[in-house]
DNA sequence: GCCAACGTTGGC
DNA sequence: GCCAACGTTGGC
């Protein structure tokens, strides 16, 4: 069992989109970074906890809890020439990009980025690291507990 | 809109 | 393999 923080732009896929999706589940399309892909491929297991984070928006921060609900499988948007996420260098025979399904658990009050930074217990969170741009980052069990027990 | 930080590309 | 140029992310 591992824990993750996954960033999403709310105008693309918000916590409300997830909550109202069929089966409360969305495929996590659009990851085009090898490190983030490798986390999904090599690190994630069904049932892993996910902190759902809104980025590139007026109030960036954690807005909900979700969980990993599938193993990694090829992201279909990489094969679709009309998709923003199309990758001409990828092929169904040799898919380059993967995704996992993510299932809604609950919404939380906004835990703003500034709030995360305020807590010494979270100082080592990868998402808070200087210059971090990864859309998927691991969260330690201690960080997960602190957030879900004290900040939610 | 600005800009720091980082990843990727491609020439050599 | 190096590295400059370019593109992207994402907070502010």
Describe the protein.
It is a single chain. The protein has 152 residues and is α+β, with helices and mostly antiparallel strands. The protein has one domain (3-151): ph1033 like fold. Helices cover 24% and strands 28% of the residues. The chain has 5 helices and 8 strands; from the N terminus they run E-H-H-E-H-E-E-E-E-E-H-E-H. The strands form 2 sheets. A 6-stranded mixed sheet has the order 2-7-4-3-1-8. The chain has a two-stranded antiparallel sheet with strand order 5-6. Strand 3 and strand 4 form a beta hairpin. The longest helix is centred in the last third of the chain and has 11 residues, at 141-151. The chain is globular, with a radius of gyration of 15 Å. The mean pLDDT is 95. The structure holds a DNA duplex (12 and 12 nucleotides). InterPro entries: 5hmC_binding, EVE_domain, PUA-like_sf, THYN1-like_EVE. This is RNA-binding protein with PUA-like domain. It comes from Caballeronia udeis. Residues 3-149 form the EVE domain.
């Amino acid at each position: 069992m591992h824990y993750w923080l996954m960033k999403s732009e709310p105008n693309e896929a918000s916590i409300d989109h997830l909550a109202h999706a069929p089966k409360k589940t969305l495929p996590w399309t659009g990851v085009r970074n090898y490190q983030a892909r490798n986390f999904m491929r090599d690190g994630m297991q069904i049932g892993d906890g996910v902190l759902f984070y809104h980025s590139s928006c007026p109030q960036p921060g954690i807005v909900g809890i979700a969980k990993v609900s599938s193993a990694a499988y090829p992201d279909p948007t990489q094969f679709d020439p009309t998709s923003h996420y199309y990758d001409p260098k990828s092929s169904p025979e040799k898919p380059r990009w993967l995704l996992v399904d993510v299932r809604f658990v609950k919404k939380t009050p906004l835990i703003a980025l500034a709030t995360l930074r305020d807590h010494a217990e979270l100082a080592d969170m990868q998402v808070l690291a200087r210059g971090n741009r990864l859309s998927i980052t691991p969260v330690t069990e201690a960080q997960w507990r602190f957030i879900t027990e004290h900040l939610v």
